[in-house]
Design brief:
This protein is an alpha+beta fold. It is 39% helix and 28% strand. It has a single domain, classed as GMP Synthetase, Chain A, domain 3 (2-Layer Sandwich), CATH 3.30.300.90. It contains 2 helices and 3 strands. It has a 3-stranded mixed beta sheet, with helices on one face. A hairpin with a 2-residue loop joins strand 1 and strand 2.
């Protein structure tokens, strides 16, 4: 996987989200800004993003993913 692949996955699952992903070698950092996080605490937001990429974490394609999950007014 590369950062663009991860970005595409997250954007497909969270329409309207602004997503940026960086990193390499299985270790990535993602910033996700979305209205979909409204009413969610930080843990729930991270869990939502992890659900999207879980299959790729399980396969080893993504070794580590650091997440910043924000509402638009928090960005």
């Amino acid at each position: 996987m590369n950062p663009e692949d991860i970005k595409t996955l997250i954007e497909a699952a969270l329409p309207g989200a602004t997503v940026s992903v960086s990193g390499e070698g299985g270790k990535y950092e993602a910033t996700v800004i979305s209205d979909a996080f409204d009413g969610m605490n930080t843990v729930k937001r991270h869990q939502r993003v992890y659900q999207i990429v879980d299959e790729h974490i399980a396969s080893g394609a993504i070794h580590a993913l650091s997440i910043k999950a924000l509402l638009p007014d928090e960005a």
